[in-house]
Every structure is written in structure tokens, then in C-alpha cells.
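Dear Dr. K.,

Following up on our conversation at the group meeting, I've run the structure prediction for Glycosyl transferase group 1 protein from Nitzschia inconspicua. I'm pasting the input sequence below exactly as I used it, so you can double-check it against your construct before we proceed with anything downstream. Let me know if the numbering doesn't match what you have in your notebook.
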Amino acid sequence: MLPSPRIRSPKGSTSPRAHLSNTDLLCAGFLRNFKFILLVTVCIALARLVVLPTAGPIIQEYSQYTQYSSPSSLSSSSTSEDAPTIRVPSGSGRVETKPTKKETDRSQKDPSVVDTPKSKSPDDTHPKDSSKSSSNSNNDDNHSKDPSPTDSKSSDFNNDDYNHSEDSSPKTDKSPTEQSSNSNNSENHPKDPSPTTNASSISNRTDSNQQKQTKEVLLSYYNASFSPVIPGGVRKMVQVHLVVDITSESGIVEPSSKFLLSAIERSKYLKAVGVTFVRQLPPLYTQEMHPRDPASPLLFLVDWGSLNRDCHRLQLVLEKIREEYSLETNDNNNKSNSTNKSLSSQLKEAYTLLVDFTGSTRQTKCEYLFQDSYIQDKSRVRLAKRSIVQGRYYNYDTNEMYLGQIVSPLEWHPNGEASPILYSPLILRETFVNAILNVTQGIKVENMNRSIDVGAFWTNGDYSHYSSYRRDITKVVKTLHHSKINSQVLMENEVGLAYTDIKGYVLGNIQAKYVEKILSCKIVVVTQRDEWEDQYRLMESLASGALVMTDDMLAMPDGLIDKVNVIVYDSPTSLKTLIRYYLHPDNEAERKRIALEGYKLVMGRHRCWHRLEELVFGEPLTNAYQPYKPAPIKEQGSTSVYWMDTDGDWYGQFL
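The predicted C-alpha cells came back this morning:
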């Protein structure tokens, strides 16, 4: 094909641009080089974003500061999303709020708290050698270097933060509090915080104070000293009829049922009049321990967890027991009519205490207990629970532990006829104490030779749904194994279960190898399950004489105070720092002092009879706060009256 001839312009020019103006040529050039111009513009914009700071966070922080400009606005700044729901005890109203996750603000003076989730301020600074930051520049005036028992319940809710390097290791004989207080004068902590930093601190302090107040109010309701089963300061002998459920084929009793009976037999203020063993309905077997005294109060003590919180079974059991008591009253010709009337009145005025030592927070409402014609005073029916915290969980993607919130103790009965639920954490079992005495052979635990630096006694590699946090803590202990304590000493750690008999371990029996290992540890690390608090190992570790490091709990057993008789960590990183600090030779005396205080507390405050006396009378009575005094001798029962052939000595296995 021949090329088309060029079209000539009217002026005779053959140039294709001859008819275009300068404006047309400029537009054409711009379009041809548009992509290059756009690229240069984008690069300049990105460069300005990187070099110049944005005003967004500053404006946002300033707005937070201005909303607290007056006391009235400060008091009204908290919304309904700041605290869990509680019921006003007088019944006059109800505070309806949503629960929030745990505020993990800590003191800048406390190296036990490192790398935990906190709200941050744009003006916060951090040491040069650390890759993670969790600090507020404003210190809380409520923080105390030496916590006392009066502020133990609020020690976990200080608003101060501590800046610390993940791999740092204290090397002096100063305590963590003293070391961090010296660092407050460094350049990393500005002396004159900006208004935006103050606004963030005010906001965090307000939220933390409200959560602290809510926690203390709820725990006060759970406290048996304010509302015991038998009020009025009664200190006379109380007769107890224990009800336990035997569910296994071999007739093995739950550990909680065992220490409840042991508590009754060792207390100087409690007397066992009978023990009812429930396996199926029917049959039901009752062992009489002592004859009833018409002048003493009668308490039906039910191991509610062993009964699986089954209200129907409980109703059948109590009806059968009362029927037997009525037969005893009516058929005993040796008693006078006045005595029979006293026993009948005693039955109608009996107290009922359901004790649930399971990990469930479920508050089963048994209408039968309040509708029974035998019960004249509905406040005599009480419930005590080990688990009172719900919503606790561990986010293993972000390594954040959410402590949840405390369940209301005032909603067990919808009509308000029941008294508040009581808090009953697990106790120190006497079988463990006896095992320690067998191993030590008269040597005090504080004088034991301890060859293991750190021990963590649970299943190595436990991948259950409730052990995610425990696995991360185990990794810390395993990683520190054979690391340097100083230039000449390597760390010796022990991780894993220690048992002699696997069958006995499954049944909850104390293992000799476990006792020997735990007595050889300088430090024992304890971690709660992901979704509930409290375990036997906490009390057993304290009784071993080792320094106990435990994760944070909303409902810490009474008397436990961080850095006084126990060490509380809130993350794997803080645990690593604390282990290195307390294993350093310069801090050996401090470690032994805290460990000894923990031993004294658990031996004088948290043994089985202490817990039951606290629930019944409002305080421990027998050998209370006497850690070196031996356990009271068991009071043996008399001949059985209602004993029936059980095809096996269940009672012997029970003991």
C-alpha cells in the first residue's frame, strides 16, 4: 500500500505542528510527561510525611486534657463501660456497667512489671536499649515502696509504669523499688511533663481508681469476716453433719471432701456428728461420729462440687437425713420430752453451707433450700465458692492476660432471701504438711539445702485449652536453664511433673517425688489457668519455704502481699527479670526473707481448719497465726448408729 500523501496547511507548510499554538504545545508536553510529574509529586509528599510530625495525636491528647479542666468534668468522665456490674446492698439501686479488661498500669519504680499492655502517651520515653515501651511519665502518689497489710488489696492497681530493658539484670543489693527510684532522675524521665502527658495520666488514674473501688466493694461482700455463716460472734461448739458424694467406681472421695472432714476433726470449735456418703439414690449411707447435743447449733456442710451442684440430689439427701434425725428424736426413749423438743427445734433452726471448690463460677440456685418447711430463717442457707472471677482469658496472639471481673455475690437468690456468697479459696492440705515433715526430719524449711534454682511443676508441653499462658511461662523457665546468674554460676531449673505413682497422682494423692523436688527449689513459679484462678500448688509452694512467684489474681488469698510474702509477675518478660534479680547473690537475703514470710502466712492462716472456721465464725480460731505450732490432734468419733454394710470400707478410704 502506498503511503498517504501529507496534507498541506493553508500556508503551505508541511509541518504537523504548524497549525498549533504555544498553549497547545504546552498541554501536549504536560500530557506526555504526566507520569513522571506524578511520580515526583508522590515522592515529595512521602518525604514530607516522614520528616514532618503530624498534629493528630497532639490534638487528640489536648482534647483529652481539656475535658478534665474542672473537677465536675473529672468526676463525670467515667462512662458505663468502666466497671463490672454490682448491686447496691441496700437494694436501692443498681450500677449497670460493662466489664473492661484489666488495667495493667504499674509503677516506674517497679521492675516486676515489664512489657505489659498499657495505654501510651505520645510524650512517653523509654530507655535507649529497650525495644518495647510500657510507661506513663506521671507517678502515682499512692504507690508505696514497702506495702503494708492494710493496702494489700490495692497493691495490684497502682497507676505507675516502669521502663526496663527486656534483657536487663539487676546486679546490686538494692531492691527493685530502690533501683528504679534512682532512675527517675535520668534524662529518660522528663521532670516537667507536658499537659498531654498529664491528661493521659489523669485518665488512666481515674479508670484504675474506679476499678480498684469496684473490686474492693465486691470482695468485701465475699469476705466471711463481714458476714459469717453463724453471725454474732458465736464461739461455742458447732455440730457439723458433712455430706459428700462418691462418684467413682472405686469409691474414691474428692480431695475437697477429705480436707473438709479433716478440718472438722482438727478444729476446737467444730464437732462432726455424722458423715453421709452419697453414691446413688438410693442407696445413701450415714456414719455417726458423735451423739447430737441439743444445746449446740447444727450445721449441714455439703461438698457442693462433689454433688455436681445437683439441686434434685441435694433435696433427696437432705430429706433422707432429716428423716433419720426425726426417727432418732422420736424413738429414743432415754431422752425426756424437753430434750426431744430441743432436738426437733435444732433441726428446724439448722444452718446449711454449700461449699464449691470447683473451677466453675456457676451459682446454681436451688429453690428447694428456701422453700423447705424446715428452714425458718432463709439467711441460714449459705454458699461458699472458690471461683468468683469470670471473663479471665489469655490472648496468645498479643500475649495479653485479661483478668476478667468479679462475679456479683448478691444474686444467688433472685428474691434477695439469701445472704452474700462467701469466698473460699483452696487450702494447704494436711497430707502435704505431713509429707514435708517426713522429708525434713526436723530441719526447718528455711535451712534446707536447695540445689534447684527455679521449679515449675506442671505438665511440660501441656496443650490444653486452659494452659496457653502456662506454656509461655514455662518457656521462660526453660530458656533460663543454664543461663548465667553471674560470671561463675549457671542457673539450674526444673520443669515438668514430679510424681512417684501416676495412678495416685491422677487421684490427687500427694507424691513423694514432688515433695522432694519442691523442697529443693529456691524459687517456685506458679501460674493460674487461663480461665479461672487458684490452685493447690500456690499454698503448697508457700509451705515448702521457697520464694513463690505467681501471676496476678483479682481474688488473691487473704494476707498475700506482693514483695512481702510473695512475688507477683504480670508477663513472661517481668518474670524473667524477677528471676534474675532474686537469684543474684547480692539479693539472697531478701529472697529468703520473703520466702519465710510466705511460709509463716500459709502455715498460720490457710490450713484446712482455718478456712472452715473462717467461713463459719468469720475468722480462723484454732492455732491461728501460729505457724510453728503442730496441727491439733483429730478427735475420733464414737460407734456408728446408722452404719450399713457398704461392701467395702469407704470410710477407711475416706480417711
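Two things stood out to me. The chain has a mean pLDDT of 72. DSSP finds 19 helices and 18 strands in the chain.

Best regards,
J.T.
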